[in-house]
Automatic annotation (TrEMBL):
Protein name: histidine kinase
Domain Histidine kinase/HSP90-like ATPase positions: 328-412
Keywords: ATP-binding, Kinase, Membrane, Nucleotide-binding, Phosphoprotein, Transferase, Transmembrane, Transmembrane helix, Two-component regulatory system
Keyword Transferase: yes
Reaction it catalyzes: ATP + protein L-histidine = ADP + protein N-phospho-L-histidine
Top-level taxon: Bacteria
Domain Putative sensor: 26-204
Amino acid sequence: MNVWRAMARNPVRFVFSSWPWRSLAYLATTPLVAVLWLAVVAVLLLVGVVLAPLVVGFGVLACVPLTAVVLASVERWRLRWLDPRAAPSAHRAVPDGAGTRARVLFRLRESATWRELGYALLFSVLAAVDLMVPFAIIVGSTVAVGAPYLVANGDRIMYGSFATVDEPLEAWLTTLLGLAIALAGCYAFAALAGGRAALARALLVRAPAEELIEVRASRARLADAFEAERRRIERDLHDGAQQRLTGLIMTLGLARLDGAAPDLIDKAQAEARAALEELRDLVHGIHPSVLTDRGLAAAVDSLADRSPVPVDVDVELPERPPEPVESAAYFVVAEALANVAKHSGASLARVRIRRGDGTLLVEVQDDGGGGAEPAQGGGLQGLADRAAVHDGTLRLSSPPGGPTILRVEIPCAS
């Protein structure tokens, strides 16, 4: 609820609510904030000009735009009087460990600082309107309502050259007019204050689009970091542990030919081969070479061949998706088929992958018993998180008795 919605929802109840008083308080404090900011700016400009021959004078002048940052913080706090929605700052966080000079330069380079300075200048001009309009309404309605008392004491109320009130009947009609002005003033205060609040939100508050861009950039950085770490692990395993185990197997084979204890050598060779297979499976789980070398279609066919449940694969990709999207789609299929084998009791599964309209569609269906639940921390939750990293969505249909259909859509730019 904010002042605009409160006024539109019930105009009659609005008059007797706290919103008109909040609006009046917002307008009344605006000139005070403006005068205080102008005084601070005037002092800084005076000191800066006086000290201009010295280097410190330019530092003082550089602080003038930063006063708008403080004013903007005050305005975002005052917004809560009329609009309780969150009002995050449009500024970025200052890097940790930055000194005073670095912090000042960081803020001066931000477009948000100069936008706030422009708002502060406009705010100072509009503060005069915020002072005059409520003053005129309050004084005019008060005089009009008190007209019978003034006329009874022999006073005359003159509205310029247009009208003069000096009769009791005219005075009581003027009182009704004063009440109407006071009633209309409640809406005038709210409209004016709501307009000022909307202006402050537009110029001083981080826009949802900016937040979305930052979230997407953060997701992209996380995805890139994950991909780089995956490749490092894969390279280390391939070039290190696998090579050493392969050398061990060959050494044991030569030792057997030289007449060493056959039983011990056979056991050592078997353990080495098992460790090598385990490492290969681990590397395959991190990122299969077939996905890198031959693409998503071949990698999904490989998953289907190893699945204990028969899998019908239908992949149509006119061109390979970007590598992060391709990797995410592969692991979605791998996890989904693993869930089918472990939990569904299905006799057949189908994998369908399509690319079109800037989206990669992955659909996995089985004829099992259904009832799959995306429990927090489960495999399905992990799939949803993996899709969300790339701004994708996961949809699940799994009624009791089946079938289960898992559909993942990942944005995939050309």
